[in-house]
Design a protein that fits this description.
- The protein is mainly beta and 218 residues long.
- Strands 1, 3, 4, 6, 7, 9, 10, 12, 13, 15 and 17 form an 11-stranded parallel sheet that branches. A 6-stranded parallel sheet has the order 2-5-8-11-14-16, with no helix packed on it.
- It is globular and about 50 Å long.
- 10% of the residues lie in helices and 50% in strands.
């Protein structure tokens, strides 16, 4: 993201903070104030990226805060699959991961965003992820959460164009000392939009789970 802001400032400024404004919630406000690093992807009109794009986020120090920002724009008729991995060594003190992910899916474009979250059990994982989908576009979140002490994450799809669609597959595992609060949210803000949410969770050895799926509004 830092490089994108220098080399493609007009694109970044056109979309940054438009899907998730700084006043959306207290964690998006914190991220907007101190963000550093992250991923920026712009897929031009009609381009289909054949191989998945991958990123890996890691916390390598104690008492650390990580506030990356991810911005993906899939232009009209384009297609892209982004895979994100997260992990950290085990430390005796706590760390905070508070990321913001904004995705813009233009007309007839398709985006798949896959996350495998395996933070160590000293990490508090508080993330805001949202996509806006235009006419006949499709957004798919594949969200796996098996790590962290606490995760709060509800990938969202806002369908603003006719025949837009969204899909979320959410899988969470909570072991001893873990709390996983995961699910999905769909907002139907245009006619003939469709969505699908599949949310599965496993609790073992006293792990806490809270899952929810919201169909939003039509």
């Amino acid at each position: 993201m830092d490089t994108a802001l220098r080399e493609y400032p007009e694109i970044v400024r056109a979309y940054f903070g438009k899907v998730i404004p700084s006043n959306d919630n207290k964690f998006s406000a914190l991220n907007s104030a101190v963000w550093s690093g992250g991923s920026f992807i712009y897929v031009p009109e009609g381009v289909e990226v054949e191989m998945p794009l991958q990123a890996y986020f890691r916390i390598n120090a104690e008492n650390m805060g990580q506030f990356e920002r991810t911005l993906i724009i899939a232009d009209k008729g384009s297609k892209v699959h982004y895979i994100e991995g997260c992990s950290a060594p085990v430390y005796s003190t706590d760390s905070l991961h508070s990321a913001v992910v904004e995705i813009v899916v233009k007309e007839s474009a398709r985006v798949t965003y896959t996350t495998i979250q395996n933070w160590s059990n000293n990490v508090f994982n508080l993330v805001t992820k949202r996509a806006v989908v235009e006419a006949e576009g499709h957004m798919e979140w594949i969200d796996g959460n098996i790590g962290s002490r606490l995760t709060m994450k509800y990938p969202a799809v806002v369908m603003v164009g006719p025949k837009a669609s969204g899909e979320v597959l959410s899988v969470a595992y909570a072991g001893e000392g873990q709390h996983q609060d995961a699910g999905a949210k769909m907002t139907h803000a245009a006619p003939e939009t469709t969505s699908k949410i599949v949310s599965k969770s496993i609790s073992k050895d006293g792990g806490d789970l809270a899952t929810a799926a919201s169909p939003g509004r039509r």
